[in-house]
Amino acid sequence: MSHKLDASSAYSSYDDFFQQLRQIGLSEALWNIVIVLTPRDVNHSQCRLLLPESDIVEKHILGSMQRSNADQCRSADGLTIEVSDVDEESRQFELCLKRWPSTNPYVLTGRWIQDFVIRKGLQKGDKVGLTYRGSKLYFKHFKNH
Fold it and tell me: What global pTM score does this model have?
């Protein structure tokens, strides 16, 4: 069972950081993690987003968390974290960040397929950006033109 991280005292969906991400969000260089989605990431039966190398997740996400929360993410149970879609400032979601037991990479699970893949129409080859600030994960879809 995953635990829930309380982000209420951190950034709100209308904070300066969020507004800054919306204004400059088109540049991939400003995002800590950029992922090119694979067929497995958008497969409705997989229900998870595989994150890049563990050291990147450790540095850019877990390194910004309280130690107990980071330790929870390192477990198979994981930690439920708040996710803000910067393209839609009023949209807040929850996903579970955890280590995948079989191969040890980090994954985001929960309603990944419903809340992101289906809702945003994500497809293999699309790029998404993630950055973590103030106990909240920010998400950006870099639309293919």
Answer: 0.80
